[in-house]
Amino acid sequence: MNNKGLHIILLGAPGAGKGTQAELLHSKFAIPHISTGDILRDAIKNRMPLGLKAKSFLDQGRLVPDDIIIEVVKNRLSMDDCKSGFILDGFPRTIFQAEAIDREFNDFPLKVIMIDVDEAELTKRLSGRRVCKKCGTNYHVIFSPPTNQDICDKCGGELYQRDDDTEDTIRARLQVFKNQTAPLIDYYRNGNNLFSISGKDPVQTIFENIIKIVDQ
Question: What domains sit in the chain, N to C, each tagged with a CATH number?
Fold first, then answer.
């Protein structure tokens, strides 16, 4: 695997804005935005051996084991478009996964950026999300509402709230994130490559702060 280039890991709770910032970084640096969920779905869709293994766990409602996740990610990072670097979103989630990535990139330190947002703000962001049943477009009742309530601007489809965007579910998701990520934050802090920034600033300000870290 090529160890030269710009390697960025974005950490943050659901709703922290990792995906938005990853897409901005992708546009600026022309390096791929890699989401664990996306590459798992692709591996399953294309009936790759590792994808089929992952599917067998998902079909049983079980978590995909670390070793399968790691191999799927490593396969993706070995592709030609990652030669100049990558942006990882949603990976790693455990110390074991982090150690596996460190072994692959031990000649070039990763930039690990934690986008920090408090729980009250995250709950407001996630509980306000609405999704179109027809085309999948996302809206937010506060930050990006549709022109007509509960109707998609793009296709006229009905908007709905996902089951995992209710307040009780959000609180449970955030607690799982805290439990999983606290050791990971300590791991990267001890490695002196963790950078923490506020995720409550405007999107452009957050992006500029990330660029400052990348340019260090």
Answer: 6-118+178-214 (3.40.50.300)
pLDDT tens per residue across all 216 residues of the chain: 444 688 999 999 988 999 889 999 999 999 999 988 888 888 888 888 888 888 888 777 777 888 988 998 988 998 999 988 999 998 898 899 999 988 887 767 789 999 999 999 999 888 998 999 999 898 999 888 999 999 999 999 999 998 878 888 888 888 888 888 889 999 999 987 899 999 999 999 999 999 999 988
Whether 74 is catalytic: no
Catalytic residue among 18, 111, 125, 130: 18
Strands 111-116 and 6-11: parallel
Helix (H, G, I), strand (E, B) or coil at 98: helix
Say which of 28, 134, 162, 178 is annotated catalytic: 162
Provide the whole-model pTM: 0.82
By the 10 Å C-beta count (0-12 exposed, 13-18 middle, 19+ buried), 212 is classed as exposed
The rounded distance, in Å, linking the Cα atoms of 100 and 126 is 31
The answer to whether 93 is a known catalytic residue is yes
